[in-house]
C-alpha cells in the first residue's frame, strides 16, 4: 500500500480550517506566480495527491496531467476534478514517469519530493518530460522552519525528509547541472500563531521575504529549461 493511501480521505480536512485555508492561499499564490500557467498549456502535476493544485490549474484553462503513486489519493483527486475535461490522472511513480520526453510546457511538484527515496531520479524524470523553453517549479517543506519542527515525527511527516535551501540547491545542481534558478519562501507566520493574527498574513509574508527568507515553511524553486 502506498504511504498516503491511509491518509487520503482525511488529508484535505486541514485545508478546510481557517489556518489551512490561509496557508494554502499563500502557497497557491507563490506556486502560480512562479509557474505562470497559461490557458491551453500542457502542465504536469507530479505527485498531485488529492488534486488541490491540479484543480487550481485546470480552472485556469491548463491541460493538466496529474501523477501520483497513491491510488487512494488519486480517487479523491478524481472526485475533485471530475468537472474538468482538461484533467488526466494516472497512478505512477515520479521516478519512472510513463510519459514521453519533451511533452510539457511546465512541470510542478509540490511537497512530494520529501517522500521520494530517490529524489535525484525524480528530478531527472521531470526534467526529461519538460520541453525546451519550459519551466519546472518545485515546492518543498523547509527543514529550518518552525513548521518542520512541529511536524517532525507526526503522522505522514514521520516519513518525510525536510529540505533546507542549501540542500535543495545542491540536489538541483548535482542532478541538473548549472541551470537558471530562482527561489522564494512562503508562510512565515509560526504554526502556533493565534488565529486572530492570521489577518496579518500579508505583513508576515512581506517581512519574512525581506529578512527571513531561508526560514519559511515552504521553499519554492523555479528552474528554466533553456535548451
Structural overview:
The chain starts with 17 loop residues before the first helix and ends with a strand. The chain contains seven helices and seven strands. Strand 1, helix 2 (52-59) and strand 2 form a beta-alpha-beta unit. Helix 4 crosses helix 6 (165-176). Helix content is 33%, strand content 21%. It has a single domain (3-224), classed as 3-Layer(aba) Sandwich (Rossmann fold). The protein is of the alpha/beta class. The mean pLDDT is 95. Pfam families: Methyltransf_11.
Category by helix and strand content: alpha/beta
Tell the overall outline: globular
Biggest β-sheet strands, sense, barrel = 7 strands, mixed
Q: What distance separates the N and C termini?
A: 39 Å
Adjacency order of strands in the biggest sheet = 3-2-1-4-5-7-6
Total count of strands: 7
Strand content: 15-25%
Quick synopsis:
The protein is of the alpha/beta class. It contains seven helices and seven strands; from the N terminus they run H-E-H-E-H-E-E-H-E-H-H-E-H-E. It is 33% helix and 21% strand.
Task: Give me the secondary-structure topology.
Layout: H1 18-35, E1 42-46, H2 52-59, E2 63-68, H3 71-81, E3 87-91, E4 104-110, H4 119-128, E5 130-141, H5 146-151, H6 165-176, E6 181-186, H7 201-211, E7 218-224
Parallel strand pairs: 1-2, 1-4, 2-3, 4-5
Antiparallel strand pairs: 5-7, 6-7
Helix pairs in contact: 4-6
